[in-house]
Amino acid sequence: MEILMAKMEKVAKEQSIEQVLRATADRLCKNVDAAECKHGAVEQGTIKIEADVCESVNFAMQQNHVPIIRGIKIINDTKSDIENIKVTITADPDIADEWHGKIPVVTEGQEYRIDKIDVQLSATRLFELTERINGTITVKVSSENEELVREKYKIAFLSYDEWSGANTYPEFLAAFVTPNHPYIFEILKNAEKFLLEWTGSPGFTGYQSKNHNNVLKQMAAIY
Prior knowledge:
5 helices; three-stranded antiparallel sheet; five-stranded mixed sheet
C-alpha cells in the first residue's frame, strides 16, 4: 500500500510540473510576435498546386513557341495569408531552363493563377533527340526561403522527327513537310532522269500541262 501511495504522489508531482511548463509556454507565446510561435510558414490547412502541363513536346513545338505549361494555379487552403511567394519550375532531364516567378501574396482561402509562363526549351537538345525521353516537370512553391509544396508532372520529350499525335496540337503535322530539305533535291534530281526518258522533258510541271498522264509519270518518277 505504501508503495502504491508513493507512485501516486510521484505521478501527481509530474503532472503538476507539466501543467506549469505548459502554462509558462502559453504566456511566452502571448508576449512575442505571433509569427514566431508558428511551427512553419502557415497555419493548418494545405497549399495546393494545379498545373496545366503538355503531355509531350518536340522540336517543332519549340520552334513555334508553344508553351509547355499553359497555366499554374496556387491554392491557399490555410488559415493565414502567404506572402513573398516564389514559384520555381525545373525539368528533368535539363532540356529547359529553370524558371522563376514571384507572387506578392495569396490570402487565406483564395487562389492565384499564373498564365504567362515562358519556360525556355533548348532547341539544340530537342533537335539532337533521336529517341523519345520520358521526363518530369517539377513545380515548387516556397515562401521566405521555406519550401511549402512541390508537384511533379510527367512529360515526354519527343525525337525531332516524331509527331506528338492528334491529341496534342495536331496541326503541327504540317511542320514535317520540308520541301527545302537537301534530300528532296537529291530525289528530284534522280527522278528527272526517268521523266526525261518517259516524256522527253525533265520538268515537274504538275497539272500545268493539263495532261493527267504527265502527272502520273511525274509521280512514278519520284516513286
